[in-house]
């Protein structure tokens, strides 16, 4: 299969990048309500010329979201296995220069975390690890095998793997992979990750294709909003999602929407994304990718997050702890990857969603389908 | 800008394919095929006499000028389709085959299960396979995965001239395809061909509409121009076609 890297090179040229700079609102207006958008249409939707049409775009995004997802919002929580990391990504709370308490859970501790987390009502767990050599795929398989006894859905957010390794996880019962490219801007990517285990743009870029080949049912991609210019990253992200939908048509494609807020003190967010820009991205994604799940994490504030449901978001994390051991041994105070802006418990999120007219869904998958 | 149709690595300037059945004579057929500008011409194997040097149908066509695409019309299952294709290749026709498996002689609807089986076997055997198929997006992906060079969903029943009644499904097929999509069957008027091309189809195939028109050559030219017109419409990114928006309560008021 063609690498998305090749597709990206062939598709995103001067023509599309020029459209991203469009300032003519009238060029954008007819596109907002059109079906089956082209990549040129997408570029126009992301352009400055689209900004006066944000409300119209939000209305269209709402119609599409309602038609495809109704009022259901699925909930999940991350389970951090380790905050040890040999990476030096300057924006991350786990980078090796951070003076934090480091910890890797033993398999028994993972199980204890699973018990504590499942008591909160969460049934979809996302296993997270940093780039830490030593904890191989066998450990992840073991962890997944134990967790799936308690959780109908187990997905992973881990460094990119080989296809065989993804297959091993899939066979154990892992049903999805989350992997963010961080930024599609290759020079910036290389600059940020030089000398880090992540220092291979293309290997990361094609990882979700390998996961799809291995039979993973959910492919969750994203960028860290704030690292690079959002218009160009949004364009490439959407094209990547469309590529995965087309070539891994048995898998559901989801977009993660992590926005940089709380970063290490020695790092300044290069291209901050405002609330208005963030909404612009979400509605453009929804209009272009009608069927993609859109995941918004607890990095966003409660009221802001809830408002995003009307315009495209379909999945929330809830009650998240971003430090290993956070659910069962909170007193140990290991270092967290990022500060949580939405501190609500799963139950509070559930009640708030119901009050707003949404159906909070804890279980929408069953491991019986695969093992 | 070059806008060639590429099938299995071979380039074609025309995006209209035509069939050779149902014409009143070989001469009328030949004139119509020429007027259509088509470069790919389908021939029903059951009609061809590969042993006779002077086979009416093939003799009428300049084999250098056209790619003769044998079809398995009349086959009721995969086994029959595979046998027909092999006979054609052994008889000297190019190893390109349009699979048609139509077990129901009344509707001539393509059998999805047998079509997929035949496609898989013929691809393995080295054929360039173009399958006529129901307008089913999942079947299209399966056919693509077994190695078909195109997919050919039907617009409506063969010979019905009803145009594109499977629009929604064909749109999904087009959006998801990695191989050319050829809308085949049911195109009764040039405007139907234009409609398919405007939707983003890579090519169209017409036969009965040409064969039964009072002036086959004239309608063949009409199809030729309509195919080009539809293609230009698609490539231009039309601005007028959009669904109407209905305003409701503001959704972006929460942004500070």
What is the percentage of strand-forming residues of chain B? 15-25%
The average pLDDT score of chain B comes to 89
Tell me the distance between the termini of chain A: 28 Å
Strands of chain B, total number = 10
What oligomeric state best describes the polypeptide chains here?
Answer: heterodimer
- The class by helix and strand makeup of chain B works out as alpha/beta
The most extensive interface, with participating residues per chain, is:
A-B, 29 and 23 residues
N-to-C terminal Cα separation of chain B, in Å?
Answer: 46 Å
The shape of chain B is globular
How would you write the strand order of the largest sheet of chain B?
8-7-6-5-4-3-10-9
User: Which radius of gyration of chain A do the C-alpha atoms yield?
Assistant: 20 Å
- Helix proportion of chain A: 40-55%
Q: What count of helical segments of chain A does DSSP give?
A: 15
Query: In percent terms, what proportion of residues of chain A is strand?
Result: 5-15%
Please provide the ordered H/E string of secondary-structure elements of chain B: EEEHEHEHEHEHEHEHEHH
Extract low-pLDDT stretches of chain A. Answer: none
* Share of residues in helices of chain B: 25-40%
- Whole-angstrom Rg of chain B: 19 Å
Number of E-state strands of chain A: 9
Overall residue-averaged pLDDT value of chain A: 90
Report on the biggest sheet of chain B. 8 strands, parallel
Give an overview of the whole structure.
The complex is a heterodimer of chains A (371) and B (256). With 371 residues, chain A is of the alpha/beta class. Chain A contains 15 helices and 9 strands. Chain B has 256 residues and is of the alpha/beta class. Chain B contains 9 helices and 10 strands. In chain B, strands 8-7-6-5-4-3-10-9 form an 8-stranded parallel beta sheet. Chain B has a two-stranded antiparallel sheet with strand order 1-2. In chain B, strand 6 (96-99), helix 4 and strand 7 (128-133) form a beta-alpha-beta unit. In chain B, helix 3 packs parallel to helix 4 (112-124) and helix 7 packs parallel to helix 9. The longest helix of chain B is centred in the C-terminal third of the chain and has 21 residues, at 216-236. At the A-B interface, helix 3, helix 5, helix 12, helix 13 and helix 14 of A face helix 6 of B.
